[in-house]
Structure formats: C-alpha cells, structure tokens
Amino acid sequence: MKHKIIFLDMDGTLYQTENDIIQDSALDAIDLLRDKGFKVCAATGRPLNQMKLILERVQFDAYVLINGSYILDKEFNEIGAYPIDKKTVEDLVSLCKEKKFGLMFHFGDATYIYNDFYPMYDFCKYCNVLDSLFYDVTQTFHKRHRVFNAVIMTKDKSSLDEFLKAHPNLRSDLINVKTDGFCFDIFNADNDKSRGVKMVLDRFNMSWKDTICIGDSTNDIGMLQNADIGVAMGSATDYVKSFADWSTTSTYDNGIFNAVAKILKEEDS
Known about the structure:
GO molecular function, one term: phosphatase activity
Largest sheet: 8 strands, mixed
CATH superfamily of the largest domain: HAD superfamily/HAD-like
Mean pLDDT: 91
Keywords: Hydrolase
CATH architecture of the largest domain: 3-Layer(aba) Sandwich
Oligomer: single chain
Number of domains: 2
Number of helices: 9
CATH class of the largest domain: Alpha Beta
Protein name: HAD family hydrolase
Pfam families: Hydrolase_3 (PF08282)
GO cellular component, one term: cytosol
Shape: globular
Number of strands: 14
Distance between the termini: 10 Å
CATH topology of the largest domain: Rossmann fold
Low-confidence stretches: none
C-alpha cells in the first residue's frame, strides 16, 4: 500500500454529534483500512474525557486531542503536550469575569465550566458530553493543572478580538453549534492538529507522504494541506474544501465509507 496511516476528525466527520451516531458503514471502513494494514488515528478538538461515547465503538492507534495540544498513544500514554501559558490562562479568567463571558477549560482529561453554567451546559448537552462536565465555582482548577484549550461563549466578538490582539500567542476558531451565544475555541497560536499529527508520524517513523487525513472544519485545514491525501467531508465549507485534494459525501451519507472505498481502490490500482 502506498499509504500507511489515516487521521480522522470526529465531529461532523466520523461522528454525528447531535444524535450520537457513528454510521455502521464508517465502522466497516475502519475495518477495511485495518485489514489493509493502515494505522487509524483520531484527530479531534475533543479532550480524552469527551471521547467516551466514541471509544465505546472504536479504538484508535493514536489520539491527537484538543486540536493538537494533547497527543496520546493507543494505551493513552502521553506522546506530547502543548498547554497554554499560565499567565495567559489567568488573563483569560480575568477577561471572562470582567466581560461576563461564558468560560470552560479543557485540562486534557477533565473539563470545567467557570462562568455561565447553563449556556455551557446546553453546549455540552448538544455535544453529548454532560457526563464529563464539572463546575469550578472557585475558578482555581487551572492553578494546579495544565490548560490546553478554552471555550468562550460571547456575542461580544469585538472584545474577544481586542483580547486576542493583545495576546498574539493565542488564536480562536468559531465552533458552529446551536447555542444562545457564539462559541469560540481558544488555543496556542502556533498549534493545530497538524502539529500533533506530525508528532504521531515521528513516533511511527512515518512522514506526511504516508498520510491520509479526513476532516470538515477550519481546525482540520493544516492536516488536510500537509497530508499526501487530504479529504474534506461533503458538509465542509468551500473554504475548507479548497485545502483538500477532493471531497467525499457528508457524515450523514456514508462519507467515511465512500472516501475509504475510493482511496483503497486507488491504492490497489
């Protein structure tokens, strides 16, 4: 086989977020890949503690979590980690207190809401991760644990943009979910899924030439660009599709299976 490893985004790619479905055809596709000797890896914005429902149906050979900030092997041992600077985390807490933004932190294996419990609760309910959720009324958990990602909920994007301009070490991605506010993922500016993918490739003594990546959102662009084959889901925007080599159908229409069938046919030709 020309390629040896595939990285799959979860939400909107492998996983139908709003109804907790992984299509049987997608699971069949993973079995086909493994029969051909592929390593199958997750590349997701989720932390490990929010992978429970997915892991009940499929396990992976490596995990690129929290958009490349936290990378684990198949036994969940840490391969690499890129937490947000502690001073910057304190600034995020202060911003959200002052502006009354909703705030939630991912700590790798734990998720804590700091502000606006019920809007964040609704967001997490939509994502089927309520059982991984905690509330820190003291807003101090970050003082003792590494923060890999913040989720901010606000309609005051101008204030968030001002904060990010003053903190060029951070970047934001809009999360497209059904909430009363607008949700933004906040990460280290120099970090994305492709950085975590590269670390996994190094661990397996592989290169981008060995790699296939499938995703649907802006946080997948880096890995779609770098992979030898980058596949965008049918639901992806035209902007995201412009960074992929080609597109498959949506996650609701056997997108993973159709992509894998095409890939394996070309591999065997």
